[in-house]
């Protein structure tokens, strides 16, 4: 990323943010997956924050460290080599531009398509400059994160008192589930005179997102009252965001959390996020078993295909769910 061409858009838009650092989120809900209360704590955290941290998840730190090293190798190769794996339309290597509606950030990234229905020849070029072990590490990581995501989704269903505990997880296990894996690299922004934005505020459209980052800060989440708080980095844990799809499926009980990333001035941040989505033809609507007697759906029924298409036509910060609210 070239420091000389920082556009106005990269500056943090929120005036209350530019001069003061948001407070640290000290009470981030921590879930130990082996704890018998995990399901209750996950539901509480999903309602209150739409965000929580997974500890004692059982995923090998070696696997993570290997993938992190390979990803850093990729981001360190010459720009023209990286560009051969781009542009991310919608999968591949991207730099600065996010999506296709004019959003920008102080970021480089790799987007992997995990939906067998979407043909993505670019997936091959991502690995072109890299040894076969990069592909293997990505595949292995995705397979363990998918299992972890299913575990979380099952605890969510159980905690909500849904009889079939695989209600959400079976949507992810579906052979045509539309998932994405993303590696984000935020170079340090030491020369910047003003606070830059790495990844602008947004919610994730899928069911849940499972994030792991190195030990560099940057992630911020927006609380219910609208205040932004920084999430202390923790490279041994995973962070889970509730996405738009689960907010709709729970008729608003779970909150799709607004979040953003502000790059560090002196250290680079690397995060890897697995977005657990559903198949294109699945309907997004509140689960009938969750609706109490008089309760009415807050949202218009929509397929994931329609929801995703509409989302991708709007700016990053747009309120996607609001587009599907019943009047
Ligand atoms: C946000 C969550 C995931 O990173 C992502 C993003 C996608 C993209 O980078 O292409 C989008 C964004 C995300 C939602 C609105 C549109 C599409 C950028 C953007 C401006 C891969 C996804 O699925 O939705």
From TrEMBL:
Identification of the protein by name: gibberellin 2beta-dioxygenase
Pathway annotation: Plant hormone biosynthesis; gibberellin biosynthesis; Hormone biosynthesis
Species this chain originates from: Acacia crassicarpa
EC number: 1.14.11.13
Record GO terms (molecular function): gibberellin 2-beta-dioxygenase activity; metal ion binding
Catalyzed chemical reaction(s): gibberellin A1 + 2-oxoglutarate + O2 = gibberellin A8 + succinate + CO2
Cofactor (UniProt): Fe cation
Similarity comment: Belongs to the iron/ascorbate-dependent oxidoreductase family. GA2OX subfamily.
Function of the protein: Catalyzes the 2-beta-hydroxylation of several biologically active gibberellins, leading to the homeostatic regulation of their endogenous level. Catabolism of gibberellins (GAs) plays a central role in plant development. Converts GA9/GA20 to GA51/GA29 and GA4/GA1 to GA34/GA8.
Alphabetical keyword list: Dioxygenase, Iron, Metal-binding, Oxidoreductase
The Fe2OG dioxygenase domain, residue ranges: 176-278
